[in-house]
């Protein structure tokens, strides 16, 4: 019996390690392509109302890809965090200051989590006759975000990761392992 539990624990650890490596490889390998819209997932806004370093990385990547003509529109999606700021509005203001025309940025202030961002993006895309999208987030978040987009019916999904890396990414990789299977099995 003791040996059985040891085998189960080792198998679980190997599964976790393998999946985490795959999430990392998938997230770091940008899947770029021409599409209708870029979707930037929200993240923390600092107490002074500016995007966190993580969120700036996502927005900078979106601005770069927009200027390189990968997409013509950008959806900025996020909720109101505990700091009291509407992430979508902060994101839009940041992009406008970065030279992105205001009229190509679509706000989703109800994207309180990855799945809500996917659902809301699908509604926005249907309303605008968009057929394809590129998700822009941290590398560890790409796999689950792409899964969420597919689950709501967005079938042509490209991806790009922000180029900011933090020690916190180790925690985030662990959370993504659990989150991926929750989305796969429950959502």
TrEMBL record:
Lineage: Bacteria, Bacillati, Bacillota, Clostridia, Eubacteriales
Gene3D superfamilies: HUPs (3.40.50.620)
InterPro entries: Cell_Envelope_Assoc (IPR051599), DUF218 (IPR003848), Rossmann-like_a/b/a_fold (IPR014729)
Species the sequence originates in: Dehalobacter restrictus (strain DSM 9455 / PER-K23)
Alphabetical list of PANTHER family matching this protein: DUF218 DOMAIN-CONTAINING PROTEIN, INNER MEMBRANE PROTEIN, PROBABLE PERMEASE
Domain DUF218: 36-179
Highest taxon listed in the record's lineage: Bacteria
UniProt protein name: DUF218 domain-containing protein
